[in-house]
Design a protein that fits this description.
The radius of gyration is 22 Å and the shape is elongated. The C terminus is likely disordered. The two termini are about 20 Å apart. The protein is mostly helical. α5 runs antiparallel to α6. A two-stranded parallel sheet has the order 1-2. It has 9 helices and 2 strands; from the N terminus they run αααααααβααβ. Helix content is about 70%, strand content about 0%.
Length: about 190
């Protein structure tokens, strides 16, 4: 960890890698959504209606996260934003359907079945995304070009504005000049601490 630079990208790379550089603050929204869902999961209602309230509030949190995802598209790879959008929509819909079943106070009501099918489908989508991420990471690991690909992602998602320090830090000593030449069309700005 002492080889990492002082820039936040290097310190928090494993957490922030999936976000576009200018929207790294969106990780706080993801964390806040998880915290809200955890707090709601800790509630122990004693009636079906109480369970319905908890499920409805969980659905509202998922739908709010879905709306924010739709507005910002915070991830560097569009497939991450797309799958998050689909999964959040399924989870929010499933929670609302389950709440409707609890409000009817009938555990055989059709909304429970529909909600559990939606949650199962969301898990399948999440597993497909995880498999795609694993294949991508394996390809990057085998080819050894993590830094170059990450830099290209930041350049594309940050409207081609990079600092010279970022360019130099990401390059090995033998390829610094070739990296500078390859990014000659990029606008360089000084880093701010």
């Amino acid at each position: 960890s002492q080889q990492r630079g002082t820039h936040w990208v290097y310190r928090w790379a494993s957490v922030m890698r999936t976000y576009r550089q200018e929207l790294a603050w969106y990780a706080f929204i993801d964390f806040s959504g998880s915290l809200a869902l955890s707090a709601l999961a800790a509630v122990e209602p004693e009636t079906y209606v109480g369970c319905g309230h908890v499920k409805l509030f969980c659905g509202i949190v998922f739908i709010m996260l879905l709306g924010l995802e739709a507005v910002f598209w915070p991830h560097a790879r569009y497939r991450d934003s797309t799958t998050d959008f689909v999964i959040l929509g399924m989870q929010g819909s499933a929670m609302v359907l389950t709440a409707m079943g609890y409000y009817k106070e009938d555990l055989s009501y059709w909304t429970f079945d529909a909600g559990s099918r939606l949650l199962f489908t969301a898990v399948v989508v999440l597993l497909i995304k995880a498999a795609m991420d694993a294949v991508t990471e394996l390809y990057i690991l085998v080819n050894g070009n993590r830094r170059r690909l990450q830099e290209e992602l930041f350049a594309r998602n940050s409207k081609n504005v990079l600092s010279e320090e970022e360019l130099v830090d990401l390059a090995s000593p033998s390829s610094k000049q070739s990296l500078r030449d390859s990014y000659s069309s990029v606008t360089l700005v000084p880093l701010r601490d």
